[in-house]
Design goal:
- The chain has two domains: 124 residues, no CATH class; 316 residues, TIM Barrel.
- Helix content is 44%, strand content 10%.
- Helix 13 runs parallel beside helix 14.
- It is globular, with a radius of gyration of 21 Å.
Length: 455
């Protein structure tokens, strides 16, 4: 069941219905969706708002407090009366492009039915609500150290900082990402009791195993977590809601034994979705997503699509300043996957990076940005009638094309361009030295501009 009905088939029609029947700032994610980082005791309603702390003192008597925080309850109230929560700025920037622009609040709401929307809007926002979709990470263990990630989400990044020290000469909002090992992101060691993980398993036994429509596991790299394999066992035992979907976010950079173990466990899961990430081709991808070996990653994508018992395969593209070089070629590559495995293998999303701001596509020179936008527009003009391209994917491409043309800054608190350019140069100079890479050889279209920043 979804909000789509006759006369309400398109995303725009769903948006207008939400605006009229609830409010122009309403999003079901605040009630029924959550991302929870159990290693750090932090949560948010989706991947756009900044994370905030969970009150650990509540968990003993109310494990549902890992989702139903005071911040979310305040945001729910604001949404019901038509006010825009500040943390949801990503969607407001998209919607302010024009009345027909579709932000992710529509995509986060359309998956629920009209009955549930009416139910939550008529309840007090301060009540505890059961989750229908949950994304959670048990820890930050990860074999990748992607350029736009940081130690809060990757143990490889922790090793980088501990080995070579903080990144220096960063003056914009990226400085907090790369100057320390973020010990608060992993509050408990592997052999210590973690009250947030304990609350998860307690809430799981009490309620979640019956209420969740979808459980999505992220990380770090989830396939490196013992708790993830414990979840696989729950599905094998049949002690979950019969139609629950399990979604795994994996970088698919694992060696054969890990991927084969995943495929073996996947056979007992009825509704399994696999999410992976990439947004550029070959050397570009290996530069941006340090740890990725392009050929291994492509082979693993083919392997899970062929043998993984998947109901859906999803490609999450993080749109940053460097991926635009080969994004059109990458999207064409995704259409070729669809031709082999079907329209849902993969579905792709284009998620525009805002933090750290110096890696946003908007920091590029206007003429270069216009060239990249033209490349994407040229690809889309040929691909948009392809029946394998879904409406949501068309929306994401169109909004990115508009974003690159209209939006001036990544977010309201971003620094001025000179500061962002300073950080872009100094970050990638040190990134090259630490990771054995070469910016100018990998991105020749950006080489002259990059070198000009050293002034």
């Amino acid at each position: 069941m979804t909000l789509r009905k006759p006369g309400r088939e398109t995303d725009l029609e769903v948006k207008k219905w939400l605006n009229t029947n609830v409010s122009p700032s309403f999003c079901m994610a605040k009630w029924r969706n959550a991302t929870i980082w159990l290693g750090s005791g932090m949560t948010t309603s989706c991947h756009h708002p900044p994370a905030h702390e969970i009150d650990v003192t509540e968990l003993q008597s109310n494990p549902a407090a890992i989702h139903n925080t005071s911040q979310k309850k305040k945001d729910r109230h604001n949404m019901l009366v038509g006010q825009r929560p500040a943390g949801c700025e990503y969607c407001w920037k998209i919607e302010d492009i024009g009345p027909d622009s579709i932000s992710d609040r529509v995509h986060k709401s359309v998956i629920y039915d009209e009955e549930d929307v009416n139910y939550v809007k008529n309840k007090l926002p301060t009540e505890n609500f059961a989750l229908r979709t949950l994304e959670t990470a048990f820890d930050r263990t990860c074999n990748f150290g992607c350029s736009y990630c940081n130690p809060a989400f990757s143990s490889t990044w922790v090793k980088d900082i501990k080995k070579d020290g903080p990144y220096e000469n960063l003056i914009s909002d990226g400085r907090n990402h790369f100057t320390h090992s973020h010990p608060s992101a992993q509050l408990y060691k592997k052999d210590e009791n973690n009250p947030y993980v304990e609350a998860f398993w307690k809430w799981w036994d009490e309620e979640l195993h019956e209420t969740l429509d979808e459980l999505r596991i992220t990380g770090g790299e989830p396939l490196m977590s013992d708790d993830v394999w414990k979840l696989f066992d729950k599905f094998k035992e049949g002690s979950v809601k019969p139609d629950m979907r399990l979604a795994i976010n994996s970088n698919l950079g694992g060696k054969d034994d890990l991927i084969n173990r995943f495929i073996e466990n996947a056979q007992s899961i009825k509704h399994l979705h696999l999410y992976t990430s990439c947004e550029s081709m070959g050397p570009h991808a290996e530069y941006i997503r340090d740890g990725l070996e392009w050929n291994r990653w492509v082979d693993n994508c083919h392997k899970v699509c062929t043998d993984g018992n998947l109901e859906g395969f999803h490609m999450m593209c993080t749109i940053n300043a460097l991926c635009l070089n080969s994004l059109p070629e990458f999207l064409q590559n995704q259409l070729e996957f669809k031709e082999t495995y079907g329209v849902d293998f993969p579905t792709f999303t284009l998620n525009i990076l805002r933090f750290p701001s110096f890696q946003s596509p908007l920091i590029l020179p206007k003429e270069t940005l216009a060239e990249f936008r033209g490349d994407l527009q040229n690809w889309y003009s040929k691909a948009k009638t392809n029946p394998l391209l879904q409406e949501m994917e068309r929306n994401h491409v169109e909004r990115l094309i508009d974003y690159l043309d209209v939006v001036e800054t990544p977010h309201s608190d971003t620094f001025e361009k000179p500061a962002l350019h300073n950080d872009f140069y100094h970050f990638y100079k040190q990134y090259d030295e630490r990771r054995g890479k070469n910016f100018t050889e990998t991105f020749p279209r950006l080489a002259d501009w990059y070198n000009s920043l050293n002034g």
